[in-house]
Each structure stands twice: as structure tokens, then as C-alpha cells.
Design a protein that fits this description.
Radius of gyration: 20 Å
Structural class: alpha+beta
Helix content: 40-55%
Order of helices and strands: HHEEEEEHHHHH
Strand order of the largest sheet: 4-3-2-1-5
Number of strands: 5
Strand content: 15-25%
Length: 172
């Protein structure tokens, strides 16, 4: 987790966002980054691309978003490379940022985002966090009900683990 935080901080600094914390209300629902971001010494705006393997250690080979063919850039002209994300890496970054927020609504939204990305277990984790973060018992119960629904879905698909899932439901 420490490495993820450092990478995220580096990305925020490079993007000029060091003056303010990321807007969690926006970040939670955003698509994950499917392209690498290459920051050049000559430009503040990053180049969205795919970094390709290069035989020359002094060159960075890229294929720009939406273009065919590749371009090689001298490594000395590259300030930073922020790697693309996978759904799980995006989830980890977001979950870590939400830990300090203690807002049930954000954990719930991240849970729903996880489900869209087929991250069932992570969605369940976020619903637990949402229920814990809520000061209003009725809202906490809404998150628990959603979690129970997900656990029941999983129990029907995996009968051997159903007793374990039912035990987890009883502990909510």
C-alpha cells in the first residue's frame, strides 16, 4: 500500500494537483486510466499513450492514444511516466484515499464501481466500510442490506462456501 500511495502522490504532483487534495466525490466514480501518462520536460500536459518495450535504454518508445505507429523519445526528455491502471490497481488507490474520509456514501459508490469492474470481493469490503462509516443507523442498514444481497448471490453460486458466507452475514 505504501508504494501505491507514493505512486499516486507522484502522479498528483506531476499533474499539478499538489495544491489541493483529490476530489473524492469525482475520483470514486471515474473510469480507471487505460493509457500510460508520459510527462515530458518540454510540456506540462501529459501524453496519453502506451509505453512499448525498447531495445535502446536511452529511448522511450510510445504509441500515442488514437494513432498508429510508434515514436521514440530520448529518455532525458521524459520527466515522469505514470503507468496505466488495471481495475484492481485503481480500486486500491481509491480505497486507500477513502480510508481517511470516513464517508459511507463514498464507500458505497466505490462498492458499486467495483461491481461494474467485476470486483465482487472488493465491493463487499467497501460495503462493510460504508456501514461502519455511517453515523445514521438507517443508512448503515441500507449498506448492510446491499452487502447481504451480494453475499447471498455468491452463496448460491458457491454452495461449498455458503456456511462461511452465512456466518459472515450473521456477524454484520
Amino acid at each position: 500500500m505504501k508504494v501505491v500511495t507514493q505512486l499516486l502522490l507522484a502522479a498528483l504532483l506531476a499533474a499539478g494537483a499538489w495544491a489541493q487534495a483529490p476530489d473524492l466525490d469525482v475520483l470514486v466514480d471515474e473510469d480507471y486510466r487505460v493509457y500510460d501518462l508520459v510527462y515530458l520536460t518540454s510540456n506540462k500536459k501529459p501524453v496519453e499513450c502506451t509505453v512499448l518495450p525498447s531495445d535502446d535504454p536511452d529511448l522511450v518508445k510510445i504509441q500515442r492514444k488514437g494513432r498508429s505507429g510508434s515514436v521514440s523519445i530520448e529518455r532525458s526528455q521524459v520527466k515522469q511516466i505514470v503507468p496505466r491502471q488495471t481495475p484492481i490497481s485503481a480500486y486500491r488507490e481509491r480505497a486507500e484515499l477513502l480510508q481517511a474520509a470516513a464517508r459511507g456514501d463514498l464507500h458505497r459508490r466505490l462498492a458499486e464501481w467495483c461491481l461494474k469492474q467485476s470486483l465482487q470481493v472488493q465491493a463487499e469490503e467497501q460495503l462493510v466500510q460504508a456501514a461502519k462509516a455511517e453515523s445514521d443507523p438507517a443508512e448503515g442498514n441500507r449498506h448492510r442490506e446491499r452487502l447481504v444481497g451480494l453475499l447471498e448471490q455468491r452463496a448460491w453460486g458457491q454452495v461449498p462456501t455458503a456456511p462461511e458466507l452465512l456466518e459472515q452475514i450473521l456477524q454484520l
